[in-house]
Amino acid sequence: MPYCEVDRYQAGDKWEGVRLFYRRYGRGATKVLLVIGLAGTHDSWGPQIRGLTGSMEPADGGDEPEPAARTDEEAGAPADAPAPATATEEEDVGEGIEVCCFDNRGVGRSTIPPHKSYYSTSIMARDALALMDHLGWKKAHVFGHSMGAMISCKLAALAPHRLSSLALLNVTGGGMECFPKVDAQMLSLAFRFLRARTPEQRALVDLETHYTKEYLDEEVESCTRRAILYKEYVKGISSSGMQSNCGFEGQINACWTHKVTTKELDTIRAAGFLVSVIHGRHDIIAQVCHARRLAQRLLPVARMVDLHGAHLVSHERPQEVNNALMDLIKATKSATAPHEWSSQPENTSETGALISARPVTLTIRTGEAGNAAVAVYNLLAKLQLSFLYVIGLIVMAFEHVRNIVRVTKPVRVAAIESS
């Protein structure tokens, strides 16, 4: 199996290696690194792998042996030292596209470090960079989804010279922006997610958070997409196993502590590569307003691609997403100027895609009344953020209390009757 050691962490009195499981698809001079989001595994990129390479057959064959044990000399090497690439990995073969996708630390077949301090978007960006070194890739188009888009932003700021382009799917700025819109549906989903203990329970919640209702209710042959996807989700979760609490809490911590600074955004803008911000406008997890704000802050190198879909718009609208990704690759190859890339006029396709480089703004021209309305709106926005923060604290406190009760709960011992 293809693994790459990217980091080391201390476990008691010894050091353990962090290994990432990865897969490669297709062959070609164009390299694409796909970075998946929270609780997702590498195979979540299926529609994009097929769209970019035309095949779902792993280029590595899937039969690579486990890595040999490290020698004493290797064990003394720096944790971030890249593994040497093989000759075949360094070769560019033709004009095709080679894709690599992987399981982030904390999920799937990759290492699950035991403490949340070993998880952050910066740490996982260094993981991705180490994987590129392992593959012998000097540069790559980096496409990230959700938490993976946050990681990709950090990677772009950390090593801008290693990116050919950047695509951010269903992205937010982390922290408070990770909170979804609070309504009855979301509260119900959050409660059911925390209580999910089986693949069947988890699959039901995932479907409602990842797709729009109209997409799930579409008839496909003799049943709905919901029924088909439910079986696929249960099968997928059952085969890979439910994500461990440790891995999930670590990745949640990475999202919660994520923040892209103004300096990092300046670095990305100045790097010279093009950026595409792709979002499902009906996403209830990552609200589209945050993606629009990020795209605006990345002007003039960024283009906003607004699609009719939800959080997994890459699955719900695969053709439109793949077209947007290919447009980015082609624009990079043709050395399209940033202002030409970002100033494409608005247009709405039959499939509901809206491409816009400029954020939608609302201007109120009613004098004092307008100013008062804006002030009230801003106050309500701040109150909503405060409310969300309190909700977050309550949820975290509830989880801590539940864990404490679980540990300290006395063991019931049956009485032994004397003879």
UniProtKB/TrEMBL annotation:
<dbReference type="InterPro" id="IPR029058">
    <property type="entry name" value="AB_hydrolase_fold"/>
</dbReference>
<dbReference type="Pfam" id="PF00561">
    <property type="entry name" value="Abhydrolase_1"/>
</dbReference>
<protein>
    <recommendedName>
        <fullName>AB hydrolase-1 domain-containing protein</fullName>
    </recommendedName>
</protein>
<feature type="domain" description="AB hydrolase-1">
    <location>
        <begin position="96"/>
        <end position="318"/>
    </location>
</feature>
<feature type="region of interest" description="Disordered">
    <location>
        <begin position="47"/>
        <end position="93"/>
    </location>
</feature>
<feature type="compositionally biased region" description="Low complexity">
    <location>
        <begin position="76"/>
        <end position="87"/>
    </location>
</feature>
<dbReference type="InterPro" id="IPR000073">
    <property type="entry name" value="AB_hydrolase_1"/>
</dbReference>
<dbReference type="InterPro" id="IPR050471">
    <property type="entry name" value="AB_hydrolase"/>
</dbReference>
